[in-house]
Amino acid sequence: MWGCFVWYTKVVTTTKNRKPNTNCKTCNKAIYKRPNIIKKGRVFCSVDCYGQDNRKEKPCVVCGTLIMAQYNKKSCSRACANIFRTGIQYKINSPRDKVKTLRSIKIRLLKERGAFCERCGYSRIEILQVHHKDRNNKNNDFRNLELICPNCHNEEHLL
């Protein structure tokens, strides 16, 4: 009902002047808001104040400058990131990679025992699998290992 309307041929703007009944949570400016919005809690005078209130900041781990707490950032700049990373030793004392060790075991078994299934003689080396006879995956002794095809492996474990 209030706002812009045409009065004959002129544009007339009207605003209803209301007395402020609350303050903005961010800038403490006196504003009017409907009572049901005030009951909900946080009241803001503008979208900018709302954005500032929702802003989450955390300090840079090196210099302490406040940065936005998103994207898992730890530092404010590349210079601080380089300072933070000094002394980190990459790939030293890394845990054993299971895929790499099994691949190297399979390659060694292929060289020693031949490129075929030890039970049925199937000869596609791409699909041959390493089987632990005692079913202990940590026991990689070559007397405990067998190079078999997926069909024989399923028969061993499922039947």
Strands, helices and their partners?
Layout (H helix, E strand, L loop, with lengths): L3 E4 L2 E4 L8 E2 L6 E2 L3 H6 L6 H8 L2 E3 L6 E3 L9 H8 L12 H16 L15 E4 L12 E4 L1 H9 L1
Antiparallel strand pairs: 1-2, 3-4, 5-6, 7-8
Strand content: 15-25%
Computed CA radius of gyration, to the nearest angstrom: 35 Å
Helices, by number, come to 5
Oligomer: single chain
**Model regions low in confidence, pLDDT < 50 over at least 5 residues:** none
- Helix/strand order: EEEEHHEEHHEEH
Descriptive overview:
With 159 residues, the chain is α+β, with helices and mostly antiparallel strands. It has 3 domains: 17-53; 56-86, no CATH class; 98-158, no CATH class. It contains 5 helices and 8 strands; from the N terminus they run ββββααββααββα. The protein has helices spanning 35-40, 47-54, 78-85, 98-113, 150-158, and strands at residues 4-7, 10-13, 22-23, 30-31, 57-59, 66-68, 129-132, 145-148. The strands form 4 sheets. The protein has a two-stranded antiparallel sheet. It has a two-stranded antiparallel ribbon with strand order 3-4. Strand 5 and strand 6 (66-68) form a beta hairpin. The chain is elongated and about 95 Å long.
Give keywords.
3 domains, single chain, 30% helix, 5 helices, 159 residues, two-stranded antiparallel ribbon, alpha+beta
